[in-house]
Amino acid sequence: MNQDRAPILRLEDISKSFSGVTVLDGINLNLYGHEVLALMGENGAGKSTLMNILSGNLMRDSGKIVVNGNDVDISSPRQASELGIAIIHQELNVVPTMTVAQNLALGNEPKGRSGLVDKKQMREDALRKLSVIGTDINPDVPLGELGTGEQQMVEIAKAVASRAKILILDEPTASLSRGESERLFDIVEKLRGEGTGLIYISHRMEEVWRLADRVTVLRDGHTVATSAIADVDQSEIVAKMVGRKVEKLYDHDERSAGEVVLDVRDLRLSQDSPSVSLQVRAGEVVGVSGLVGAGRTEIARCVIGADKRFSGEVSLKGRNVAFQSPKMAIQHGVAYLPEDRKVQSIFPVRSVEDNISVSTLERFESFGMLRKHKIREAVGKLMQKVNIASRLQQTPIVNLSGGNQQKAIFARWMMRNPDVLILDEPTRGVDVGAKREIYELIGEQAAQGKAILMISSDLPEVLGISDRVLVIRQGSVVANLESKKTTEEEIMGYATGVLQPQRLGPEHDEIHDNDEVTFNE
C-alpha cells in the first residue's frame, strides 16, 4: 500500500460533545484505498460516535472531513451514501416484518413502467446481492424469521451491493458463525483488492491481525495511536486501549465441582426435535458451543420457561420443575442473561440503579413502601463490586457503554443470588477490559458455588473460562469435553459434523423426586 498518495478519507480534529460532556476531542484519522484500517478502543472510547458522524446520523461540532480531496459536511445518511460511504452497524438496522428482498431494496426499490415497485426485479436483484456474499438465504421470507447471523449477512449483502468506496464495519462478526465469518473475511479481502477503503471496528484481536493493514486506537475520545499492524503486537494495543496493562485475559483457577444443581433430561423443544440432556454442578462453569442456529439459545429459553417444551424433565437441586415463565425461574433460583441485552435485558430509559434492583425490589419493601435509601446503598455496593463508577447510579442505562450495561445486568443477578446462572453470549460487543472484568465475575460466582451454563460463540472464551464444553449440533448435544483436554479444532469438528457425535453415557445417576412441581404466575 502506497501512502504517498492522498487518502480517500481524512478526519482532522473532529470533536463532539453531548450536554457539555466531550465524547470526541480532536480525532485525527486517514483511510486509504486498498486498505483495511482497524479502529479499536474500549466501549465508550468514541468509536460509535465517530462512525455516526461519518454515516450522517450525527453532526460534528468542529473539525474537518475530507472525502477524495473535498471538504464535506455529512448531514444525513443519504448524503453519506452519495459520497460513497456505507456502514454495517453492530445493532442491526433492518425492518423485521419486511422480506429479505424488501430490506435489500429499501430506499432504492426498482420501479416498473406503472411507477409501482417491480417485485420480480426486486427479487432478482436480491438473489444477485446475496449470491455475491455466498449465501443462499431465501429472499421471500420476512427478515425477522431469520436468525441474528443471517440478518447480519443480509446487512452485509446490502452494503457490498452499494459499491461504496468507504465501507465501515462495526463488530461485523459478533452474530456470525465461523463459516459466515470466513465468508465475510473473503469479502473484505476482495473489496480491498478492488480499491475500497475499509474501517474495521472489532474487539477480536485475531480478526484485526488477520485482516488489517493498520490500526488506530481511541481512548476517552482521543486518538492515542496509529500503527502498521506489522509494527505492533497485541499487548501494546491493549495497553493503549485501556491506558494500563491488562493481565492475562483468561485466568482460570482450579475449581472443584459439587453436587448436580441443574439437570436436564431428554428435553425436546418440539415433536420433531432431538432430545437434549445436560448437567451443571455447583461451582462449575459449563460452556456451550456450536454454530449459530444449532439450537443453543432455544435450549436455554426452554429451560427457563420462556418457550414451552414438548417433553423431557428439568430438575433443580434434585427436584423436578416446570417453569411456566422466566419470572418463575428467577423466583426459584435460575437467572438468565439473554443474548441481546438491549432488547431483552435492560430498561433503556431507567437508571442504572433501577435496572440493577428491578428483580429484587420485594426485599426492600416495608409496610407496602420501598426503602429507597436501602436500595441506593445496596446498588452502590454492587456497582463498586462490578467496577461501574458511582456517579452513574442515577444515569439512564442506555447512556452507558456496552461493557458497563452488561456488568450492570451481572450486578442485577448478583443481588438476586441465584443457584443457576445461564449466560448467553455474555461478552458480545464488549471491549477487552470489560471482558476481563466479566470473566472475573463469572469465576467469583462459580467459586461461591453457583452452577453456570455459558453459551458462547467465542471459542477462546469457551476454552479459557469453562470447566467442560458441551457442543450442540442441530439441536442435540454431540460432545461433552473437558476444557483442558480439548482444542478449538476438536470443538469445531463436532459442531460442523466432521467428527462423529460421542457415545454419551447416562448422565443422570442422581436420585430425584418423582413428583414434578409446576411453577405458575
UniProtKB/TrEMBL annotation:
GO cellular component annotations of the record: plasma membrane
Single Gene Ontology MF annotation: ATP binding
Pfam families named in the record: ABC_tran
CDD domains on file: ABC_Carb_Monos_I (cd03216), ABC_Carb_Monos_II (cd03215)
Keywords carried by this UniProt record: ATP-binding, Cell membrane, Membrane, Nucleotide-binding, Repeat, Sugar transport, Translocase, Transport
Gene3D superfamilies, per the entry: P-loop containing nucleotide triphosphate hydrolases (3.40.50.300)
Membrane topology value: Peripheral membrane protein
Compositional bias ranges of the Basic and acidic residues kind: 505-515
UniProt keyword Cell inner membrane present: no
Main location: membrane
Positions of the ABC transporter domain: 9-245, 244-499
Disordered: annotated span: 502-521
Subcellular localization(s) per the UniProt record: Cell membrane
SUPFAM superfamilies (alphabetical): P-loop containing nucleoside triphosphate hydrolases
PANTHER family in alphabetical order: CARBOHYDRATE TRANSPORT ATP-BINDING PROTEIN MG119-RELATED, D-ALLOSE IMPORT ATP-BINDING PROTEIN ALSA-RELATED
Protein name in UniProt: ABC transporter, ATP-binding protein
